[in-house]
User: What shape does this take?
Amino acid sequence: MPNPDDYPAAGSDAALIRRAIRVAMDGRGEVEPNPMVGCVIARDAPAGPSKPPVIIGEGRHVAFGQAHAEPTALADCREDPRGATAYVTLEPCCHTNKKTPPCAPQVIAAGIARVVVGCLDPNPAVDGQGVAMLRAAGVRVDHAATAVEAECRQLIAPFIAAQSNRPYVTMKWAEDNHGYVAGPGGERATISGPATNRLVHHLRARSDVVGVGAGTVIADDPALTPRGVPIVRPLRRWVFDRGLRSPADCQLFETAEQWPTTIFCDASAAGPQSRARYPAAVKIVGVDDFTLARAIAAGATESGITHVLVESGPLLAAGMFAENLVDRLWVIRAARRVGDATAPSAAAIPANFVRTATLAFGDDVVSEYLNTQSAAFFAAVPSADIVLATDSDADFSAACEG
Ligand code: AOF
Ligand code: ZN
Assistant: This one.
């Protein structure tokens, strides 16, 4: 259960940084490959420091290539921010030769007296130098408490993973009330309901890649495109298919001109004859001594990929777990029974996954787990995708479970 100390009084530094985290989350899907960043500007209440500060403006990094959080919040201020405190989830940037002017000089020019920094920017071009610039100009800089700093890092976990040249991986599956992931004999079956499907389509639309295994292509012939939701970024499809078993005539490959599609197979299966079976638009990448990690690494050399969504069957799921490649897991549990003893069961969730949210969606329950053994794990808090879903139409029944 949550520790009451984790929920400080409204108006404390921690509460205002958490407000900035929530503001940042609205940029999910639009800011990547940049980090989500939020900024809240507040000044002491006229009644004195014993009262909560008054928020005079707030804003977020709007979209990739557009304004950062600090100038957005400064522009939002309903009074002169001179002397106020800026609460930023990420250290203000100070570097040039990029898409937008640096934030630290703008914070200084606006007369902000104090900045509370959620976490340092892992971008080597910043990494503490934004804080140094503010301090050199006489701005007081305080760092958020350790627990809050961890939440700020969790907010930008995909951006942190990208500093090590790897994408953040979310895996998702749906199971029935007996843990079966397909109908009798492995037949394709509808498991989750319409409300949950919409959530998954949002997740696809915000991802850079949707990946599946060859087993899913053969059994389900999925399209893997976002439908019925705004498409906020380009999406690619990846198929993990060591032996190049995927049939050529399926929806994925027939739509490859519109939605770039790559099959990753073992290098030994990637000869010209095999390639000729597939439509020309399908890219086939041979991976030496195929592993899922090598396939993902080969795919992620394409720039701008920070988030891969893997919609796995049980075999791919087990392989992803075995190679410790999953950062975040979503399991959709339907209330009804779909499978029988001849149907495949879901993979077992490893013990190092901690549940961060449980949402009721129609008749389904969506649970989010984070991998505590991922290099991009910092805090067991619900992700932006879960928080955005919670604030829209879900019945949010638990968060931050131990
Ligand atoms: C901030 N506030 O809101 C964000 C920051 O190409 P640009 O100009 O958008 O700069 C992107 C870099 O700026 C990004 O790699 C990261 O280091 C930092 N992001 N910094 O002060 C923000 N989004
Ligand atoms: Zn900036």
The chain has a mean pLDDT of 92. Residues 34-35, 37, 61, 68-70, 90, 92-93, 98-100, 103, 121, 123, 126 surround AOF (ligand 1) (CB under 6 Å).
